[in-house]
Design brief:
The chain is α+β, with helices and mostly antiparallel strands and 164 residues long. The chain contains four helices and seven strands, in the order βααββββββαα. A hairpin with a 6-residue loop joins strand 2 and strand 3.
């Protein structure tokens, strides 16, 4: 059976250490609406308006190799099962491929059976394949800004979601 977890892979010219540092700069590629430290083991919090709130525990930080977060609590306003991500894991695996660095992002537990699957995979695709990629390769990502009202991809997707 095919692996059902959401996963995407990037290939960049930067070193594994540069990639590791960029991943841990969560405010630089995902959202400025983060509370807590994201570059050492511990807990941090994410929120997007009244639509999404999440508590993460950083479970692994292996410089140049791996970053892992465990979702302790999650709330979505736009799906019936508000806590769909609770208990899932977000993993960034970093490997050297010749003179390039490969980043494999996997949201373990984000599966097609989840009501949020389409919205969440669209959002992760944008944040990983565009914003994180640009932070790594150009030094500047495209995170949701603090207080930003209209995050184009998330808002458009949510506007078109039947339960939003």
């Amino acid at each position: 059976m095919k692996n059902q977890n959401f996963s995407t892979t990037l290939l960049v010219e930067q070193t594994p250490e540069e990639v590791f540092n960029a991943i841990n700069n969560v405010r630089g590629w995902w959202s400025e609406n983060i509370e807590g430290e994201t570059d050492k083991p511990g807990i941090f919090y994410y929120h997007y308006q009244d639509i999404h709130r999440c508590t993460f525990k950083i479970t692994e930080l292996i410089p140049g190799k791996k970053v892992a977060w465990h979702v302790l609590q999650n709330y979505f306003s736009f799906v019936e099962e508000k806590t769909e991500w609770t208990g899932t894991d977000i993993i960034f695996e970093i490997t050297r491929q010749g003179d390039k660095t490969e980043i494999t992002f996997t949201h373990v537990g984000l599966v097609p059976e989840y009501e949020c699957h389409a919205v969440c995979t669209d959002a992760w695709n944008t944040y990983i394949n565009h914003s994180l990629f640009n932070l790594i390769t150009k030094g500047k990502g495209d995170p949701t800004l603090k207080g930003q009202k209209d995050r184009s991809v998330q808002q458009t997707t949510l506007d078109n979601h039947p339960n939003a």
